[in-house]
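[agent] plan:
  1. take the single chain provided in the ticket
  2. run structure prediction with default settings
  3. attach C-alpha cells to the ticket
  4. add a short note for the reviewer (M.T.)
[agent] executing step 1
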Amino acid sequence: MPASSRTVERIGHRGAPRELPENTLEGFARALERGADAVELDVHATSDGVCVVHHDAAIARALDPSCIGRPIAEISWGDLQRIELAPDVRVPSLEAVLRLLAGRATVYVEVKAPKIERLVAAAIAASTASCAVHSFDHDAIARLARLAPSIPRGILFDEAPKDVLLSMQHTGARDVWPHWQLVTEPLVRAVHEAGGRVLPWTVNAPAVAERLIALGADGICSDDLRLVFPR
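[agent] step 2 finished; step 3 output follows
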C-alpha cells in the first residue's frame, strides 16, 4: 500500500523525553500536545503490588541523591510517592497514566519486570484505555496471552529475529517492535502477511522515518514527534 494512503501511528516513546522527564504524567500530556496517537511506556511493580511507570528497575533520577538506585520492587507505593524525580514530578502508577490517556491515545505497555503479568493485566482490565502489551521477554507475552487473551500483544527485538513468524506464533503477537535499523522490506512483508504490524523504535531522524514509512512501517516510535511528524 502506498505510504500516502496509509495511516502511520505516531507513538511518543516514554512520552516526550526531549522536553520533559520520561515516563511521567507531565511527559505523556506533552506527547498528546505534540499529536501523539499513542504512547509507549515501561512498567515495574512496587513491593505492595502497584504497577508503576518507570524505565529502570531502580530509581534512575531523583532530587534526593540517596534515592537513586533504590530498587522499585523494594519500595512501597506510599514511599515511592514521596520521591521527587524533578520538582513536583513523581513516578506515576499505571492506573493514573491510563486514566489520563483513556479515550485520547493508545497505550503500549512494555513489561520490564519479571512475574508482574497478572498485575499488568489487572490494571489494564480496570481501565477504559485502549492498551496493548509488549516485551523483550517473549515468554512473558506468551503468559499474558493465557492470562488475558483479549489484550493485544507485541514482541520487541534489538537483534534481527531468527524466525519472526515463529515468535509471533509463540506469543500470539500482533505487533512486532524491531529497532529501526532491523527493519527490512522482507521483514515488513512477512509480518504483514501474518496479519501483524511493524512498529520500529526509536526513530529520531526525519529521513529515517520517511524510509521506514516507505518500507511499510505501521507506526513510528520517537522521542520527539516534532522531528518525524512536523505539524
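[agent] step 4 note for reviewer: The domain at 7-55+93-228 is CATH 3.20.20.190 (TIM Barrel).
[agent] ticket updated
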